[in-house]
From TrEMBL:
It comes from Streptosporangium amethystogenes subsp. fukuiense. The keyword Transmembrane helix applies. Pfam families: Exo_endo_phos. It comes from the Bacteria. This is Endonuclease/exonuclease/phosphatase family protein. Residues 102-304 form the Endonuclease/exonuclease/phosphatase domain. InterPro entries: Endo/exonu/phosph_ase_sf (IPR036691), Endo/exonuclease/phosphatase (IPR005135). GO terms for molecular function: endonuclease activity. The chain crosses the membrane at residues 32-55, 62-80. Keywords: Endonuclease, Hydrolase, Membrane, Nuclease, Transmembrane, Transmembrane helix.
């Protein structure tokens, strides 16, 4: 009897943390700043939430089992759809191929990135942590010949970005918060569409004083609607962050999620951080665009894996 009573008391400390996790993730509330980086690991919490459920069932603690079951269902509902491709796609006429890569303070391997450019043949390349030295290496390797139109916001350190395009591009005012420079430009596509592209890179919320910059950097991104837009790059956020879900709610779709690749990690590449991988690099496309394909690729000497999406453009009807 005493052993059974102790078992009943011990099961609750196992069940309650997962229940709190599910409640916070669903509500979008941030009780402490540490929750901002922690919530990115929700897919792992969803898998681990099965353990207290099985223990509660084995111990016949029905109240704890019921809470664990609800918790697991909430977490599974949040995570599992990313593993399955969406069936419906809007009709499209023309394509836009988008590649995004974080260069890790310009250190990303130039030859490997150029191999990706040649094999994937993107219309747009959105770069983060683009330094002047990395820009010079890439252009010496032929990037400017393949993609002659550029929005160059390269700068030393982690703060630079840029957009290379096969098609003419008109620069728009960059989004600058906490020294991070998110480049913007409008591409004139041969189909007749004008498409705004943002090279996304808000602050990384690794410390308390950077959470505000991260928050404001994501809030400053243009919402969907009106002009076609694509947001591509290192969001430092997953689909478990409320700010990303707000962007999706405005009328974007996450290319990885649409194609069933939403749980493929993009950071950190093996050997960079002693952490399980999370999906913080994205291509968000206007919901009027089809998502024909998506992939995550290696890039030596960077802590991020580049992401690539082929998007289908809606039929152009003029202005």
């Amino acid at each position: 009897m005493i052993r059974s009573r102790w078992a009943g008391l011990l099961i609750w400390p196992m069940v309650l943390p997962f229940a709190v996790w599910a409640a916070l993730r669903t509500s979008g509330w941030t009780p402490v700043w540490q929750w901002v980086p922690l919530v990115a690991f929700t897919p792992y919490a969803a898998v681990a939430s099965v353990i207290p459920l099985l223990l509660a069932l084995g111990l016949r603690r029905w109240a704890a089992a019921a809470l664990a079951l609800v918790t697991g269902a909430v977490l599974a509902t949040a995570v599992l759809p990313r593993h399955f491709a969406d069936g419906d796609q809007p009709a499209s006429d023309g394509r836009l191929r988008v590649l995004a890569a974080n260069l890790a303070v310009g250190a990303g391997d130039t030859d490997a990135l150029m191999d990706l450019v040649r094999s994937l043949d993107p219309d747009v390349l959105a770069l983060q942590e683009l330094t002047p030295a990395a820009r010079e290496r890439l252009e010496a390797a032929g990037l400017r010949r393949r993609m002659p139109h550029v929005v160059d916001r390269a700068v030393g350190g982690v703060h630079g970005s840029g957009i290379y395009s096969r098609h003419p591009i008109t620069e728009k005012p960059l989004i600058a918060l906490g020294r991070f420079r998110q480049a913007r430009g409008v591409i004139r596509h041969p189909s007749g569409h004008e498409i705004e592209v943002v090279s996304v890179h808000p602050c990384a919320p690794r410390y308390d004083y950077k959470v505000w910059c991260w928050d404001q950097g994501l809030r400053a991104l243009p919402r969907a609607g009106g002009q076609l837009r694509v947001l591509a790059g290192d969001f430092n956020a997953t689909l478990d962050h409320g700010l990303v879900r707000d962007l999706l709610g405005s009328g974007y779709r996450d290319a990885a999620d649409v194609t069933g690749h939403g749980l493929v990690p993009t950071w950190p590449q093996q050997g960079w951080e002693p952490l399980p991988g999370v999906t913080i690099d994205h291509v968000l496309a206007d919901s009027r665009m089809a998502v024909n394909s998506f992939g995550v690729h290696p890039l030596p000497d960077s802590d991020h894996r580049p992401v690539f999406a082929e998007l289908g453009l809606p039929r152009f009807t003029g202005h």
